[in-house]
């Protein structure tokens, strides 16, 4: 069973949990660490012959165009994470349209290939803004990975399907993986949960989805999660501080084990059958 490995390419200061602490007007003055961290991920993937999908912010692409080219040249899929990590729930339909079209064109110009996939900042598409799926389809995207079928204080659509499905307009939605535990949907696709729980729990969850349900898992993480030396932010609420900094020193070791324990590939290869080397 081949699972989908995905990376949300954003820097440590761009996460939604820091929105109230770091204004976007200050981003330019902060040390940029995303390029070096992503290069480290590329080296790790090359070591274990892993191809992945990189959902990249347009803001990052403008400042690190050669990184975009390296991602594509090494055979990974280039996809959109929006321009400036603004949650869809904070955008009007027209603002969202302009955002995703701008980012798609930027990435395609830098990468030299078609961008087919999109992931919303903090999985911010749900029951209250499903209009976003129509805008994505109208803007030339072939799939989205933006709806997380769990309960969470910042995101989630618990009643959404657990596995890839087509919306009414034909757009393919590919949710982050969950595992059923006594009829409850538990996260099984990485992120902060990968750092929170001991690695054997993540391995069990992925194995369960693969073996018992015969479905591919979708796993995600961020470049800042392998960077325990990133600048620490002051004045954070305890929950944000806990979520962001927990077990950063363990992420790379766990990722290395994950790459050995399972087979991984690109989203478009697994779900669209459209993987092309160098694009």
Layout of secondary structure:
Elements: E1 2-9, H1 34-47, E2 53-56, H2 58-63, H3 65-73, E3 77-80, H4 93-111, E4 117-118, H5 131-138, E5 143-144, E6 165-166, E7 172-173, E8 178-181, E9 184-187, H6 192-196, H7 199-212, E10 218-221, H8 238-245, H9 248-261, E11 263-265, H10 267-272
Parallel strand pairs: 1-2, 1-10, 1-11, 2-3, 4-5, 5-7
Antiparallel strand pairs: 6-7, 8-9
Helix pairs in contact: 4-5
Oligomer state of the chains in this structure: single chain
Number of DSSP helical runs: 10
The computed structural class is alpha/beta
Name the CATH homologous superfamily.
Answer: Glycoside hydrolase/deacetylase
What's the mean pLDDT score? 94
How many domains? The number is: 1
Q: How many strand elements?
A: 11
Which bin fits the share of residues in helices? 25-40%
Q: What would you say this structure looks like, in words?
A:
The chain is of the alpha/beta class and 279 residues long. The chain has a single domain, classed as Glycoside hydrolase/deacetylase (TIM Barrel, Alpha-Beta Barrel), CATH 3.20.20.370. The protein is 37% helix and 14% strand. The protein contains ten helices and eleven strands. It has helices spanning 34-47, 58-63, 65-73, 93-111, 131-138, 192-196, 199-212, 238-245, 248-261, 267-272; strands at residues 2-9, 53-56, 77-80, 117-118, 143-144, 165-166, 172-173, 178-181, 184-187, 218-221, 263-265. The strands form three sheets. Strands 1, 2, 3, 10 and 11 form a five-stranded parallel sheet that branches. A four-stranded mixed sheet has the order 4-5-7-6, covered by helices on one side. A hairpin with a 5-residue loop joins strand 6 and strand 7. Helix 4 (93-111) runs parallel beside helix 5. The two termini are 23 Å apart.
């Amino acid at each position: 069973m081949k699972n989908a490995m995905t990376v949300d390419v954003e820097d440590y200061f761009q996460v939604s949990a820091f929105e109230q602490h770091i204004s976007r007007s200050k981003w330019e003055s902060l040390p940029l660490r995303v390029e070096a961290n992503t290069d480290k991920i590329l080296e790790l993937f090359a070591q274990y012959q892993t191809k992945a999908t990189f959902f990249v912010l347009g803001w990052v692409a403008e400042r690190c165009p050669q990184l975009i080219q390296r991602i594509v040249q090494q055979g990974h899929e280039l996809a959109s994470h929006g321009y400036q990590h603004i949650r869809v729930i904070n955008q009007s339909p027209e603002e969202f349209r302009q955002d995703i079209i701008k980012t798609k064109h930027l990435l395609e110009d830098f990468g030299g290939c078609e961008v087919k996939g999109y992931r919303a900042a903090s999985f911010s598409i749900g029951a209250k803004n499903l209009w976003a799926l129509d805008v994505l389809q109208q803007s030339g995207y072939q799939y989205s990975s933006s709806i997380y079928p769990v309960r969470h204080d910042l995101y989630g659509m618990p009643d959404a399907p657990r596995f890839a499905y087509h919306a009414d307009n034909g757009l393919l939605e590919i949710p982050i993986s969950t595992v059923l535990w006594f009829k409850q949907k538990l996260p099984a696709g990485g992120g902060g949960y990968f750092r929170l729980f001991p690695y054997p729990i993540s391995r069990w969850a992925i194995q369960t989805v693969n073996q018992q349900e015969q479905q591919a898992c979708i796993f995600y993480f961020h470049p800042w999660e392998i960077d325990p030396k990133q600048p620490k932010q002051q004045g954070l609420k305890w929950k944000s501080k806990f979520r962001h900094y927990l077990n950063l020193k363990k992420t790379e070791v766990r990722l290395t084990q994950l790459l050995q324990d399972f087979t991984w590939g690109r989203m478009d290869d697994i779900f669209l059958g459209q993987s092309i080397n160098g694009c």
